[in-house]
Structures are given as structure tokens and as C-alpha cells.
UniProtKB/TrEMBL annotation, chains A, B:
Keyword hit for Flavoprotein: yes
Obligatory cofactor(s): FAD
Species: Sandaracinobacteroides saxicola
Keywords: FAD, Flavoprotein, Oxidoreductase
Protein name from the UniProt record: Acyl-CoA dehydrogenase family protein
All residue ranges annotated as the Acyl-CoA dehydrogenase/oxidase C-terminal domain in the record: 228-375
From TrEMBL, chains C, D:
InterPro entries: Acyl-CoA_Oxase/DH_mid-dom, Acyl-CoA_Oxase/DH_mid-dom_sf, AcylCo_DH-like_C, AcylCo_DH/oxidase_C, AcylCoA_DH/ox_N, AcylCoA_DH/ox_N_sf, AcylCoA_DH/oxidase_NM_dom_sf, Mycobact_Acyl-CoA_DH
A cellular-component GO term for this protein: plasma membrane
Sections of the chain in a coiled coil: none
Required cofactor(s): FAD
Keyword Oxidoreductase among UniProt keywords: yes
Sequence similarity: Belongs to the acyl-CoA dehydrogenase family.
Record protein name field: Acyl-CoA dehydrogenase family protein
Highest classification ranks of the organism: Bacteria, Pseudomonadati, Pseudomonadota, Alphaproteobacteria, Sphingomonadales
Source organism of this protein record: Sandaracinobacteroides saxicola
Presence of keyword Flavoprotein: yes
Amino acid sequence: MALVLNDEQAMIREAAEGFFADHAPVAELRRLRDAKDATGFDRGLWAKMAEMGFAGVAVPEAYGGAGLGWVAAGLIQEAIGKNLSLSPFLATSVLSAAVLVKGGSEEQKAALLPKLATGELLLALASDERARHAPSHVETRAEPSGNGFRLTGKKAHVLDGHVADRLIVAARTGGEVADKAGITLFLVDPKAAGVRVERRSMVDSRNSASVVLEGVQVDGADVIGEVGGGYALLTAALDAGRACLAAEMLGVSHTSFAMTVDYLKQREQFGVKIGSFQALQHRAAHLFCEVELARSVSLRALQALDDGDVRAPVFVSLAKAKVGEVAKLATNEAVQMHGGIGMTDDFDIGFFMKRARAANETFGDSAFHGDRLARLMNY
Amino acid sequence: MALVLNDEQAMIREAAEGFFADHAPVAELRRLRDAKDATGFDRGLWAKMAEMGFAGVAVPEAYGGAGLGWVAAGLIQEAIGKNLSLSPFLATSVLSAAVLVKGGSEEQKAALLPKLATGELLLALASDERARHAPSHVETRAEPSGNGFRLTGKKAHVLDGHVADRLIVAARTGGEVADKAGITLFLVDPKAAGVRVERRSMVDSRNSASVVLEGVQVDGADVIGEVGGGYALLTAALDAGRACLAAEMLGVSHTSFAMTVDYLKQREQFGVKIGSFQALQHRAAHLFCEVELARSVSLRALQALDDGDVRAPVFVSLAKAKVGEVAKLATNEAVQMHGGIGMTDDFDIGFFMKRARAANETFGDSAFHGDRLARLMNY
Amino acid sequence: MSDALETFRAETRAWLEANCPAEMREPVKSDSDVCWGGRKFRFKSEAQKLWLERMAAKGWTVPEWPREYGGGGLSKDEAKVLAQEMRRISARPPLSSFGIWMLGPALLKYGSHEQKLAHIPGIARGEIRWCQGYSEPGAGSDLASLRTSAVLDGDEYIVNGQKVWTSYADRADWIFCLVRTDPDKPKHLGISFLLFDMASPGVSTSPIKLISGYSPFCQTFFDDVRVPAANLVGERGKGWDIAKYLLTHEREMIGGMDMGSTGRDGMSAMAKKALGEDGLKAEPLLRADIVRHEMDAWAFGLTMERVKDEAKAGQGVGALSSMLKYYGTELNKNRQQLLMSIKGSDGLLWEGEERGDGDLAKSWLRSRANSIEGGTSEVQLNIIAKRVLELPGA
Amino acid sequence: MSDALETFRAETRAWLEANCPAEMREPVKSDSDVCWGGRKFRFKSEAQKLWLERMAAKGWTVPEWPREYGGGGLSKDEAKVLAQEMRRISARPPLSSFGIWMLGPALLKYGSHEQKLAHIPGIARGEIRWCQGYSEPGAGSDLASLRTSAVLDGDEYIVNGQKVWTSYADRADWIFCLVRTDPDKPKHLGISFLLFDMASPGVSTSPIKLISGYSPFCQTFFDDVRVPAANLVGERGKGWDIAKYLLTHEREMIGGMDMGSTGRDGMSAMAKKALGEDGLKAEPLLRADIVRHEMDAWAFGLTMERVKDEAKAGQGVGALSSMLKYYGTELNKNRQQLLMSIKGSDGLLWEGEERGDGDLAKSWLRSRANSIEGGTSEVQLNIIAKRVLELPGA
């Protein structure tokens, strides 16, 4: 498969870039942060995203979605990264859509996906339990009870958990802690008895919540996929999320780098433009190369997901690890080259550095994915 | 203990630097290499080194040595690194002296150390069997036979093995391959029946040999230290060798860096001195810092050995790993900044890069020692 | 050790035993435990106030400064004994301030007798808190391009201009300030070193909010501020020499910052605490990053040690402050990044219910300024290239 | 696919089947299997000679060049079919040369009809081997400072000067050479592009021994060499344009070098072979270094792929040759270092009894030149800063 966008994808990119630049630029993130907005995003924006077909981009047309797949979702997330736009896109349209499309029963799909695509229904994936990502580390227990299960446990770092209308919870129906077998995914109503959702205030002003489950009763119909076979489904959804996070970090890198190059051309010191200092030139030129590499691996990972390529997990880990490193370098260099002004809250570059860090930590950083890649390649 | 040389050590440094610059500069290495000298070093030089007290620097005065310890040995090896001087110093005066001083019986010491100090007797340590350093990986077997043992196995990368009058061989008297217990050290005459020593031609023009032992008969009196308890002794000797190799790589880094800074000041391109290019200035300045760090860790490792500090293995691994990385960087940068001329055999800088590489690989590179350091610190 | 010194030790020990309040023998837990002094300072406790007063009375807030200016007049060896005895009972420093770290040493070196008499006792007693007016908007590393003007009018200078990055200007009483007294002279010629009261008419400040959420710095504005000409330190037009002297000082302070905890097993111990005893075995690449960092940090720590030992032995190489500043701050930035990685999503917390929530993220963000303030890393590399390596055109 | 192309494929397949000797269907094992052509070339076998002659007769040594100059006159699509069919039977390239890679394209673009007629057929038939005379002693990356002079004397230029890093000058028949025809014009103005016979009186060469032990380069001396004025390519004084065109070409070649084997699992497979299936588990830091390298190499490989795909789709960003050269060569140096680490003391062998002994060390040393030849890494970064990022004063 050629490493270029097809015409349809090029159009989506253009639409997404225009949309987020117009409707949700960095100033909007600043506004929501400073207002200490309880929701953490703008429902009006989300409605517009649904109208544009973004909310249901990865949902098949049969269920009211755009059916455009992961390259398209990644392009939207890249534009989000360029503008640091706040929305429940990752949690609802990527992670949760991936779980339901791949693993949902016909009834679940028919009930949930059309509402997801219209933006009416927000979902969140409650899987991580440890601060450092370890997806098979599931202590939350699901014990048989009535015609269903009772869930007990704690979930950390649930993206958009505080606004979700429905949670997708990974719990253990068998096996030992850290076993891949024995994990099951459940649909949980956050308003059900025994569920406590608490928003956590994050460095990147994104929405993350901790979720406590105390003997929460769910129905047999709330099981997604096979009992005990949830890990493969979870991995598929996480890989979609990781590839889209890589795309977002590509957007973050792109804008940080562009801002830096602009600054190098404007700012004067010692009587000359600082962009004329060779040491900075070489660092900027190196960074240019790294951003180009990030672009290649990001696109390949998204394509591999669309193609159902068996190597998709390898490409996803490559992208998450490599783009993560590039985003770290790009934002670090941006702050350093901006000097004092880059350290002030009034200036935007700090937001990019914060987001790069948070996106890195979400669903495995470059150490996690480097190790995963090596294991997948048998060494 | 203060991280400075005492007066005696400062004198030794001065003496060593003058000696090797005068008697064994890089030109001498080139001469021996081009002449394809069968010995690989100059016996005249070695005799002079013995006269200077260098050969027996780490041998107690009671056995005819200078009794000056490892800081002094390291300073000599640093001067060797600055000049790339060829001699059996590391194999005989460091590795073998360490084994004998620490583990030899009174008879062995009395018989061997005085001759070692006068330069009459060359020794070599035959321990490594794998291409990548793994000191407990000993397959060579020592089976009881008569009043002694019969040795069978193969040794790789035996420094100065082809000129040694006596070999110190690590062989297994018990335990499984890679066990630390069950290793015993033996004195072996390379002229004994069943010993085959073959010199290998190395990238750095140093002397290394492979040794094959086919049922070689040794006496009970040839055992050094305890039967089965040789690993601790071997480790102590290797640590002395590693610390001295770090000191040598410090010397290599120092000279490479000095040559590079000189070149930056002389060489013109695009009508100006290349040392005025800020990108090269920053790289040179960074390298300056790294060489200073290398100097600190090298000295601390040698001091810790002299002090019998229990943390000596940690400091030694720190030094071998860190100075190794610095030497790699210093020689790589030297070749790159010298440009085309740095790639030519007529110019000396290539010799430094070759030696840095070989010294890195000898007795564990920075990956090996980083891992060892982490284990020693329980993580 | 001499008898006199032993006597001094015994006396000091007894005096500290009798005079250091129990509350002042606890480790400093947060910035609010630090006594910064000054007119606006509110003591956290009676003990804090008492401890400052008692120490200041002996001149031991600044033990080695001359007695005539309110210092302790101790010899180097005596000061060392005092420090040891204070450490023995974990006594807190009675006073911390820019006056002690920066202005005092500069005044002692460059000030007139009158200036020393006028200003040093106030520093020693913690009565006057000072801030530093160096950087200006748009100047950054290019300090010599500063534009704040001081025009002589009779026996007063009239100061106009703007400073930025003035640490705690909103809490300071006085400022030591670089101003341009000779507008016609190029760059760093024509700059003078001036002291004035922040309460003077025409001075105003405005705090700068940082990405870490803290506001330790201000913008400071001067609008026709009248300053007695006698407040100019050293020669007119020679302020640059004083500034350079102080920059070297500052560099050493920042370079050494946090370094105590960087070396040794600090980070791996923290990782074990966060990930469990065997947690790092399951994360071989993270472990590799930690080892590489710890080795560099350790090597740097040993280098700080060696530099000090060499200085004591009179073997100093000199001009190493740029190296320590550059390498130390880069290392600390790397350390903060790795700590964030170790903590995963917990490290991303900004605010929370528990004490300490958000501290890690803030200290990570704070660390990014290390390589910008006090001369950027790029400036330090320039200095090494020029002064140590003597490269052409540097 | 068109019918005409299918017919071409069938004919080509039949022709290759009938004309490619069996011996020429084996992979190239070493440099001695490569046919470089030229007057001094000694064919390794009759089959090698026959294969060159048969391919040259059809113009398929240079399939896309015009027929009138000895090329195959194929369209892009036909040339692709030929390449596919050759790959199908593992046919070796019949001829490799600087003439094909470098001079030919330049002559086709800048040469006169007469020059094309005079020189291109000899390249296509492998009769003339060319070398490149660019660098001069002391000039390095600063090509424009060259001093070799060409002074017009009637209808001849008299060439005097010295070149360095001329690849295989001792085996070449002709040289394409940058000379200064207008000594008064500054720098890269006044440079012309001249062709001449290495057998001309006054030309001499001397091989340069490299740290890798190989001598692929020479120093080349010109002492009153007389060259017909008609051998000047393009306009007098405009040689710099041709040189730049060729440098971009060269950069792409070097950047792509060895990269095919860098990506994917090449290195980890090799590590497993050297250290045993579980060997890397016992060496977690080495494993970490390998993973980090493989990720970069893979990302770079995908970028090469993307650049090609974008070019095909007409979306090329342009000016990427410097990026590929810079990143590709730095990566390859890193790869060679890691391979040396994996092989430990075995990698240090210089000569030995077994075939291949010393190859690794030599190829490590060879790789160090990658970032120097064809424009240093520093020059590539300068180019990116200037042409892509458009930074000031770059």
C-alpha cells in the first residue's frame, strides 16, 4: 500500500484542519482551562464535529457512521493535535467505537453506534489500573451474580470518564492478575449503584477520571464479546487509540516545530536573528528530519489498521514509540529555543509540551512500546 | 578520599607521560604494525618500562615491585592511551599481577612476582570464552588427573597470549556453565603438551590470541587460590583491568579531543577557520564536559580499588561504561570533524578510534557494565 | 585541629544547644518554612523570628562577613565548624536571601565603605529583601543590549525602563539593577550597577505566570524613578564587571541545584517504590534509560566533588562554572522527564486532594527553565568554546 | 496494462531466457563479481563479457537513454518491465559505472549533441570507465574554493592542479572534472566542467590508503595537461550548476546505501545468531540499544518509501535528498557500531583464516566516511536549514 493519502483522505485532512483551526484553536483550550469548565470541553463543538461526520468517522455506514476507517480518524486527531482541541473524540469515536464495532453484539451495535455517530452518546474505556500502562494488569473482579456479574475494583486514568454516558470496563472473570486470559469487557452505566466517577485535574487540561466500582451489578447482555476473551478486543481498541495518539503527537510536533522556525526567523539577539546561529540551525534541521520520520510511521500504522494487516500491532508500537520521542524532542526544543517567553503561561508553546507529555504516557510510552515491538519480533 | 592526586601520584603521572611520549608515541605503533612485527611490541621498551618501575607498579615491594597500587597503574595506562603505546602492561602488570597478588600462594608469589616486576616474565589471563564478555561463562573443564588436573577447552581474546611465558587459565572444576561457583584458576605453561596458542590480527594492532587446551596436564601446585573459588579472584583481576582500561580510554579521549580542538583552530573552509562554526563549537564544548566527567569516574574507580572500598565494583562498572561512551564519542567526533583526512591511514586519528572500540569491547562494554551496575544496586 | 578551634567548637555547640529553638531543628518541608526576611515578610512562627534574631545578633546569618558590617567575622575554618555543628542538630538556616547569595558578595568586592555600611547590615539581619534587575524584555541572553536608562540630574539618577524575570520583585524591598548610564557607548560599555528602594515613586511590578503555574518572577517597570547618585556601585560604566561576577555566582548555584539528590541510587529507589521491587524487570527499556541517567548523574556528582577537591588543593582548572551549569541543568531536565515516565499517569496530575498531588508535574515544568535562566545552555556552550577551548571567533 | 507492454514483456522474457548466461543469474557475492567496464577491466569470465556485449548491443545497459547515443530508448514503463524480468531470473546488472550513474545523466542534460555522440555510447558499451574530479586537498566541503586551473591556449585548455578523493582514478580511462576557468571571479562563479582522457600526458594518480585498509580513492595530479576546448560541457563558468545537479544525485545514492538491510528485523536476527536465541535477554541494555536503533531504521525506511510514493503521486516536498543523505548515513554509522558491539571481540578481528574475517571491522570503519563524502552531515544540515527551513543567514 502506497504511503500517501488517497483523494478521499486528502479531502478529510483538509476539512479537519480547517475545522479545528476555525472552531477550536489553542485559545479555546485556554478559555476552557481558565474558566475551570466542569465538562472540560464544548458540547457545541462536539455537535458540530458530529455534523461533520467526525464523531462517527470509524463507525460503519450501516450504523449511521461515515465508515471511513482509521486513516481518516488519525487525520482528524492530527488536526486536533495541531490545535490542541478539546473533545471526547479519542474516548468515544476511537477507543469505544473500536470496541463496539469489533466486539459488540448486533443488539449493542444497533443500540449504541448510531447515537455515538450523532454525538448524543459519550463513552469511555475504563481499562488501566496502574499508573504505568500495563493492559493485562486487571485486578477488578467480575463475579457471577444473578443473571449477570458484580464488578468490584478501581480504574485509573479513564479518559473522559467524568462525562461518559456509558463506561466500557475491563474486569477479570478468570485467571490471575496480569494474565491475558480471563479478562472480560462490560458496558456499565456510570449512574448505576456502586459506581463512583471522579474527575482528575490533569497537566494538559484534558479530561481524565478515576472510577471506583463497588459491587456494581451488570446484566449478561452488558458483556461485550466473549466472557474471558476480552483481552484481544481491548488490545485492538488500544491499538486504534495508540495509532490516533501517534497522529495527534505528530500534529503537536508539527505545530511546535513550525512555531519554533517562525520564532527563529523573527527574534533578534546580539543584533542578529537567532535563526542565523548555526548551532540552532543544525538542531532545527535535525528536528525537521525527525518530524518527517514521525509522519511516515504514523501513516503506516493507521493504514495497517485499515488493512487488517497482521503486523498492525508492530506498526502501532513503532508509531507510538517513535512519534512520542519526536514530540518530546520537538516540544523540548521549542521551549528551549523560545527562551524565557516559552516558560510563560501567556505563551502557547507550554500547552504543546504538556500535551506531548500526557499523550506519551497514555497507553504506553516509548519504553513500553519499544519493548512490545521487540517481543512481537521475538527478541 | 579527595578526588585529587597526591604528590607521589602526580609525580608518577608526569613521569609516565614523559616516558611514553618520548619512547612510544603513535609513530611507534605505526612502525610495528607496518613491519607486521611478530611480537607486536618492542622488548626494549618493555625493559625500560621495568626499569622505570612500571612493570611491577602494583606488585608489593616485598616481591620486588613498586607497591604503588591501582591509581598509579591507571596513570601509567592513561599515558599509554594518550600515546597508543604497545606493551604487555595490561596483561602482565595489571591482570596477572592482580590475580597473583590477591590469590597466589606464598610460593607462587615468590617465584613469579619478582620476575614479573623485572620484566623477565610475561603472563596472560585466559578467561573469556565468548565473543561478548560473560566472565562466568566457562566451558573449559578441569578434570582430576594424577596429582592435578587435565584441562580441555577453548579461550578467546587472550590479551598478549602469544608472547606469554605463563597463562592463567579459568576452568570449571564444578557447577554448570555460567555458574559463578566451581571456577578455578590455573597456571599453565604455554609450551606444555596440548596447548595451542594462535595470535589473532586485531583492528587496533594489539595482541590477542586464541588458546586451545586439549587435555593439558597441570599440577596441584598450579592451582591459584581455592579450588572452585576462582570467580571472586577473577572478578577482582578483571575489575583492576577494567579500571585501567577506563584510564586508558580517558587518555585516548584526551588526545583525540586535543587533536580535534587544534584542528578546529587551524583548518580553514569557506574562508574561515572551521572552529568558528557555532555548531562545531557547541559539539566541542559538550565533548569537553564529557571528558571532564570521564576523568572523575576513572579516578574514583582506581581510588576505590586502592582503598578496598566495598563499592569498588560499582565504581569500576561506572567508569568502564561511562569512559567507554566518552571515548566512542570523542573519537567519532574527532574523525568527523577532521573530515576526509581523518579517514586516511596516513593520519593518526583513526588509530585512536580503533583503540577506543577495542578497549570498549574488552571485559564488557557500556551495556554490560550498565547492567552490572544496576544489578549491584539491586534493580 | 588547633586548640582554639576546639574551644570554638565547644562554645558554638553550647550556644546552639541553648539558642536554637526545637522547632528550628526540623528539616525544611516546603518553601513556606524558609525565612526570606524583609519588610513584608510574615514569620511563620515565633521560633522562626527568635532564631533569626539570635543568629543575626551574632552575625551568624553571614558567618564569614566582616563584623563591622554585621557579619560574624569568622575564619573559613570557624565557619566550617559552625556549619558542622548546625548540621549536627539539623538546625535550619536562619535566613535565605538574594542579598546573602548575590548582592552581599558583590558589595563586599565592589562597594564603597559607605555602601557596605548602609546595606550589608540590613542583609545580615534579614531586614531588607533584595531582588535582581538584570534581564529586559526582548533581550534574553543578550544582557548587554539592555535599555533601561539612568540619566544624571544633579545628584540623582532618573531611571526609566522595564525589567523582566525579576525574582519575587513583588516581595522585595530593594533592587540591585543594571542600567545604562552612557547611551552613546556600545553594548556592555556604558552600563552601571545601581541600588534603589522598590518603594520609590515610579516603581511598579506585575507577576508573570509560568507554565508550571507558579509566579516567582515579575515584570518591573521604572517610570522616572529618582535614585541618589551615591547608590551607584563601583565605577560608572563598569557595571558589566559586577554583573559578570554575579552571573558566575548564579550559574554555580543553579548548576548545583537539586544535584545532591540526582546521583547515587535516588532514581532507581524511586522507581522501585513506584513500580514494585521487580517492576523495573518488566520494563527493560525504562530500566535502561534509568541506568544511563544514573551513570551520567553519578559521573557529574563526582565531577562536582573533584572540582571542589581540586580547588582546595589549588589545582583548579578554572572557568568550570559554565560546565557545571550546562551539564547540571541538562541532567536535571532529563531527571525530571524520567521521573515523569516512572510515575506514568500519576505524574500527569495537576491538582488533587492529597498533599503533593501535582508537585511532580510542576517540578518537571519548572526544570525546563533551568537551561534558560542564569544564562542559557547555548550561552554556556559559547563560553566554554571561547574561554576554555579558545576557539576562533567564538 | 496495455497490450503493447504485454507484448514487450513476452519478447523481453524470451530474449533474456535465450541470452542471459546461467552464470550471470547468480547473486553478486563480492566486488569482483561486478562488471565495471573500461579499457583496463579484466573480465572475470567469458560469461561476464558475453552478457555485457549482448545487453550493450540492445542498449539495455542504459535502457532509458536515447537509441542514437547507444541507449535502449525504452519508455519508463518498458524499463520497469525489463527490470522486473531481470529480477525474475536474478540476472546481474551487466555493467556498473560512474558513467551510468553520474556523467551520463549530466551529459544528457547539459552536453551538446556532439559531446553526447562522443561520450555516451562508450559509457553504454562499458568501453570507457569514468572517474569524478571534484574535491581538492584542503577544500573538503568547500567545493567552491577549488583551485585547479584551466587556461585557454588556442583551442586547448591547459590544466594544472590537484584533485583528491577521486574514486578509482587509477582504474579510470577518462575524468569529469571541475576546473577554474576564470580565476578572477569569486568562488563558484568561474568554475567549468571539463572532460579529459586520463592517459593524457601530465596526468598521474596515487592511491590513498584508508583506515579501513582499502584504497578506493586516489590523489590525482595535473601538470600542464592539454585538453581540447570542445571538451568543456555547458557554458564556460557555469560548471557549478552541473556539479550541484550531480551532488544531489550522489547524495541520494549514498543516503540510500545499505539501507535496504537496515530496517526490519535485520539486526535483531543477527544478534540472535551471534548470541543465541535468548542471548539478548541476558543483555537488556544491548537489547534496548538494538530496539531503539531498529525503530529509527524502520522509520527511516518507511520515510524513503513515502518519499518515493509521494513523488509518484506528484506530491513530493522536494529538497529531501539532504535529509535522506544526513539521516541515512548517521543511521548506518550507528548500525555498524551496534553490529560491532553485538560481535564483541570477534568484531575486532582484522585478518584471519576464514573468509569474511575482518569484514565487519572494515565495514564499520568504512561507514565512518558516509557522513563525510558526498557532502558532510554538517553541510546537509546547512542545506536543510537554508533551503527547506529558509532560516536567515544560513
